[in-house]
Design goal:
Elements (H helix, E strand, L loop, with lengths): L1 H9 L24 H4 L5 H14 L2 H16 L5 H6 L1 H5 L9 H8 L4 E6 L7 H20 L5 E4 L7 H8 L6 H24 L3 E3 L7 H15 L6 E6 L5 H15 L3 E6 L4 H11 L9 H17 L4 E6 L3 H13 L9 E6 L4 H9 L4 E7 L2 H17 L3 H19 L13
Parallel strand pairs: 1-2, 1-8, 2-3, 3-4, 4-5, 5-6, 6-7, 7-8
Helix pairs in contact: 1-4, 3-18, 4-17, 8-10, 9-11, 14-15
Length: 429
């Protein structure tokens, strides 16, 4: 049984917030049902393997079981790296190193899709590891400067700073002298990263984190924006719209940018820590920071997109989503506002290995689209990979949608006589 499990899982104005309630055009040229465009680069074998992978991720119990088995295998040094590299790792990861990602970057670029390299190092605790990660992030900035196919760099503050320290600073708790020195080193790393982005004219996005460490991150980023953002948003923050205060925070930070005379840059996502946030709120006895339901998140996500378009003169933004309605809304608004589809201040983004039907169909119509391309060693990538699996199994309909699109393309190829691909025996065809 364990062997089978291994096989399958790896097989307006900011003060008023005026919103134009415009709906996506039903006859818009972007067609997310176009599977031929979405999967043009996938061979028959690759398409079948993708189907198997998402079929596994559609089963939450199986995902959790496999997570435990893989963790055990890695802990006892069981030789699973080769299997992982050929399956789940290959699907969601660009490679081991920056150079190793070159093939993925070139392949995406052929379809007018850009890449954002994401060094997925996490879980370290030492200054030496944090310094090494900081230097690697700077290398991604330098790589982006030399490669027009890579328009941004990105990093997580928990890759260069200890989580508990960030929590303590966010709580405004007293720090020991050692902790104060440690935090100054964090500030030095942050400044070095954004300074290099400024020197090379490469925008750098910092990912959002859990709510109880987000305050220190917001403060640091706003300081860096004031220092390095002029007419161009070199420093960019990330906001998780499943937080019910995200619209207010975005508008507040936008107002500070206007008052400070610097450009506001940001990325919006729906969010990655929902269950963790709710569990902690219940444990600690405070009100959950998370929206009461998905509909509320979707509403705020789409409303803030409208706000961005109304304030495009002072905001650069990226909409990072696998949601078709939100993607079509932004595409429709870009056209309705008579804004060039390749406007340098507007980007769509999806994760490498997911939602290709959104990515490639947007790119086909001339919009700016970038894939998040994570890289790193197999072992260090496992937390990232299992987050992808857990998100797909917990977010209603995500894996099911991927499965449906892949199955549609399989059937299309079968009917058109391009090729015949038999669906996996365990699938419900």
């Amino acid at each position: 049984m364990a062997g089978m499990l291994f096989f399958f899982i790896f097989a307006g104005k900011p003060g008023s917030f005026y919103i134009k309630h415009m709906q996506p055009e039903k006859n818009h040229p972007v067609n997310f049902e176009n599977t031929e465009t979405a999967f043009r680069d996938q061979s028959n074998a690759s398409l079948r393997q993708s189907y198997q992978l998402f079929n596994v991720m559609n089963n939450r119990t199986l995902v959790q079981t496999c997570k435990q088995l893989v963790g055990l295998a890695l802990a006892i040094h069981f030789p699973v790296n080769g299997i992982l590299r050929k399956t789940i790792y290959r699907h969601f990861v660009g490679g081991v190193s920056i150079t190793d990602c070159s093939n993925a970057i070139a392949r995406l670029a052929k379809r007018n899709v850009l890449s954002i390299l994401d060094y997925a190092q996490e879980g370290e605790e030492s200054d030496a590891a944090f310094d090494a990660t900081c230097n690697e992030i700077i290398r991604t900035i330098e790589f982006a400067h030399d490669n027009p196919r890579v328009p941004f760099s990105v990093f997580k503050i928990t890759g260069i700073a200890r989580f508990d320290l960030l929590a303590k600073v966010s709580e405004e708790s007293s720090l020991t002298s050692e902790e104060e020195a440690e935090y100054r080193r964090v500030e030095t790393r942050i400044n070095a990263i954004f300074r290099r982005g400024y020197e090379l004219d490469v925008p750098v996005m910092i990912d959002a984190e859990e709510t109880w460490i987000q305050p220190v991150l917001d403060n640091l980023v706003l300081r860096m924006m004031a220092q390095y953002n002029g007419k161009k948003a070199i420093v960019q923050n990330t906001y998780q719209m499943y937080r019910h205060d995200s619209i207010a925070r975005i508008m507040q930070h936008h107002r500070k940018a206007l008052e400070g005379g610097f450009r506001f840059g940001l990325k919006i996502v729906r969010g990655a820590y929902m269950e963790k946030e709710r569990a902690r709120a219940a444990e600690k006895g405070y009100s959950s920071p998370i929206q009461p339901d998905k509909q509320s998140t979707d509403r705020d996500f789409n409303d803030i997109i409208r706000y961005f378009m109304d304030n495009l003169d002072s905001i650069d933004f990226m909409v990072a989503t696998h949601n078709e309605t939100s993607s079509l809304l932004l595409a429709s608004l870009i056209d309705a506002y008579n804004v060039p589809r390749n406007h340098p201040g507007i980007y769509f983004s999806q994760l490498y290995g997911m939602s290709d039907h959104i990515t490639y169909n947007l790119a086909e119509q001339g919009y700016n689209v970038a894939k998040y391309v994570p890289y790193g060693e197999v072992k260090t990538m496992m937390p990232y990979l299992f987050r992808r699996a857990e998100e797909n199994s917990s977010v209603k309909g995500q894996s099911s949608r991927e499965l449906k699109m892949i199955k549609t393309e399989i059937e299309r190829r079968k009917k058109t006589g391009i090729s015949f691909i038999s669906l996996p025996k365990h699938s419900k065809s």
